[in-house]
Amino acid sequence: MSDTDVDHDRQKPKGVFSTLMADGDWLYIKGEYKKAIESYTAALTLKPDDKTCFVGRSKCYLKIGQSVNALKDAEASLKEDASFFEGLYQKAEALYYMGEFEYGLVFYHRGQKLRPQIQEFRLGIQKAQEAIENSVGSPFSVKLEIKGDLSFLQKDEEGAQPIAAIQHLTTKKKQPAQKTPKSEKTTKQLLGEFYSDKKYLETLLKDEDLVNGRTKSGEPLQDVIQGCLTYLDTCTEFWNQEKPICAQEKEPKLKQQKCRVLSGHALFLLKSLEDIDSELISGNAEGSLKKAKEVMKIVQGWSEKEAPHKKEVLGNLHSCIGNALIDLGDMDKALKHHQKDLELAKQCNLPDAMSRALDNIGRLYAQIGQFTQAVEIWEKKIPLVRGGLEKTWLFHEIGWCYLELSHHKEARHYGLRSVHAADEIADEKWQINANVLVAQSEMKLGNFESCVSHFEQALTKAKLQEDDSAVIAIQKALDEAKEHLLQ
Questions:
Q1: 164 with 133: CB under 8 angstroms?
Q2: Which of 54, 206, 217, 354 has its Cα between 20 and 30 A from that of 384?
Q3: For the whole model, what pTM was predicted?
Q4: Cα–Cα distance, 85 to 275 (Å, whole number)
Q5: Which one, of 450, 448, 454, lies nearest residue 484 by Cα?
Q6: How far is CA 47 from CA 50, 63, 477, in A?
Q7: Are the CB atoms for 32 and 281 separated by under 8 Å?
Q8: pLDDT digit string (tens) for 228-254?
Q9: DSSP 214
Q10: How far is Cα 85 from Cα 91, in angstroms, rounded to an integer?
Q11: To which H or E segment does residue 36 belong?
């Protein structure tokens, strides 16, 4: 084997890793979290200690409600570098959604100290403080004594216990905050109509013949049922910490309703949506489409009393059907379903669902080359964007569409916005993409000096990412730009 072949074999895993990472990031933005987890997991087999990959997978776990796994990955990203701010934020988020508000607050503060310009840490501090106040009461009614071991607030040890660390928290009446419901009545109040699901599951657990069986995938039914019960118990505890029953009783009954997709049919819907998603992930778009249509027919037969959020559910199913039809190449029908999803989201005033629908419609238009329509749709999505990563991606895609339309000034404008957003979250991959977009726009506008500058920035980032294919492509474009500059 020649030296050239050896070098090629050594470099190949780097390119594969970068591709898997890019796929994972793309799938995360699309909301296909399970697929993204698969890509990140495959990437970690090539680079087991890559902290950015751990953070990406942690985000996905958090989106599908697996907070413990999200925390494990966040901690893994901090193993070699305890000051890695993305890992700190992800750990804080995981702890928050596990109900460990005090401990999460510590890591939000730690991250803000390192990167005060990132607003996510400030927002995290705010929501964690509000959750703590809802759990233990206003700070004005609480007296903190300067006793006990508070060193975990200053040190970087990972083993500090979040709640037990503050030993002498007292109020005038010395009533400790209730962390778990003390009675069946409290549980019933917190779970609402989910309470009947809980009792039904508990009954199933007593059926020995049933629990000894297995699902089609081989998972013991006892584990499935117990997992559902554990999830409901976790929800009960979390909701009680966010807004204890004593506080809820002071509010109108209508405000006590929890945000639920469904009530008595929740388990059926969750299982169905999981099946629909699994079929699409496995490449069986036809199976996913068939299942989604079957579930939609059932949901359409439910009354408003049985399903208070029926329109929201139907919108979700229209989105699933639209995505399956895109995979099957039926763009006209897919567009109709995504437009129906948008219509229902507007009727229910659901910003997240509106954002999802606009996202899908824009992608569809871009995929079939209708860039003007894609821009029009995606620009409507801008006010609904929340996270920095989504903002970076959206600005880049709008800019790319303008570039395809030969509207070079607009392409540069959105490219620069994408660069700024990528810099805010320190995402090197999107810093590369955004700088390349700006450079391409400047090339078309004849601004070769600026073009060279942005290509050079992209090249530096690509080398740091060890993305060999990107380095080669950017270097070629940079050489061409320099030739124009010398003319």
A1: no
A2: 54
A3: 0.51
A4: 36
A5: 448
A6: 6, 24, 29
A7: yes
A8: 776 667 666 655 554 444 444 434 433
A9: B
A10: 10
A11: helix 33-46
